[in-house]
Amino acid sequence: MPHIDARADEDDLWPTDAEGAERVQQRLAERVRVETLPAAQVSLVAGVDVSYAADDSALVAAVTVLDTASLRLVEAQVEVARPRFPYVPGLLAFREVPPLLKALERLECEPDVYLCDGFGLAHPRRFGLACHLGVLLERPTLGVAKSAFVGRATDPGAERGAATDLVDDGEVIGRVLRTRTGVKPVYVSTGHRVDLAGACDLVLRLCPRYRLPEPIRHADQLSRARLAER
DNA sequence: GCGACAG
DNA sequence: ATCTTGTCGC
């Protein structure tokens, strides 16, 4: 059960317009902290994802929690709702975080880290979905995106584990990581209270067989299945 | 000004 | 994101 940071409740966290949303990002971005996440302390890993109906009339936000060592499913929760914010590149969190928080509130266990489908610091204002969720939960988060957004990088080697820096404005904002030999790489970036190297190590550990981390795959399948049931 | 643009 | 099955390849 997540606890929303008291300070974050003071003002309007969910503006309806893009201008207000960007101001919220600039304000909350100051709270992001990059810290090391001891691998020994990660026993429960959560994956979050959101699926949408083709006509955008409904969405299903899902969270799945896996035991890091065995990769067995420990718990799963969903939130069915109607989209309240349009998809705008750079403002994805305003569309997905509200329903995700609802699903997370139903969780009985406490994940040690949350893997998000999207970016963290690798964002125009250095405050992507993973940072947003992490700051509101005040919990460790990281982002794993399937395609490029901001920054430049050279292609990592073809072997699993190969990685290159994602650079923007002279700063390393993430890593392009090959999780499967010969398969398109993923984009890993810090969300909150984790460091880039630790995030990449964890992501690689969670990808023993597929391109995407197991927690995210499970959340994706669950959200999609619940959407189809309607 | 024009195109690109996480999910 | 979503519309969509089978199929080629390791």
TrEMBL record:
InterPro entries: Endonuclease-V. It catalyses: Endonucleolytic cleavage at apurinic or apyrimidinic sites to products with a 5'-phosphate. The record marks 87 as: Interaction with target DNA. The keyword Heme does not apply. It is found in: Cytoplasm. It is an enzyme of class 3 (hydrolase). It comes from the Bacteria. Its cofactor is Mg(2+). Gene3D superfamilies: archaeoglobus fulgidus dsm 4304 superfamily. Belongs to the endonuclease V family. This is Endonuclease V.
